[in-house]
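FAQ: What does the model actually see?

It sees only this:
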Amino acid sequence: MKKELKTSIEGKTLRMEWTCEAPRNSVFAAFTEKEQLEAWWGPEGWETTIETFEFQPGGVWHYCMRCVDPAQGDFYGMESWGKAIFRHIDAPNTYSHADYFSDASGAISEHLPGSENVTTFLDHGETTLIVFESTYETEAAVQEVLGMGMKEGFTSQLYRLDRLLTKR
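And it is asked to produce this:
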């Protein structure tokens, strides 16, 4: 049975939920250890290179997702840069960060929406419910990122996360 990323929108906040068949400590590590994150972050057919990863309050995560799948047509060879600034960390329960589109130098895009995010890892024994809450400046910004295929891309990368976790 194929899983679905549960989503809901309340005003300027997009909430998504995903259940992993792995204990919370393992799931949290996959989000907070550079080598693991590079192995699954980004949709199918994309590879992620992390330029900077400082998992601490005030720390920066700067990365590039690059399409390496020729079957993805016009996306092939495209790069998408992102930058996050970690706000609060309560391992292995939750962390928060500001999230932005950026360029290769780390300059934040003024033309694409940024968000404030809280990621929570709920322990259910051998499974973990991950709750993602992203708050944007406007309701239109939520619709903009959804229109860019954010839900589909995020679902794809969460399946990659699942595969990484089952290899253990």
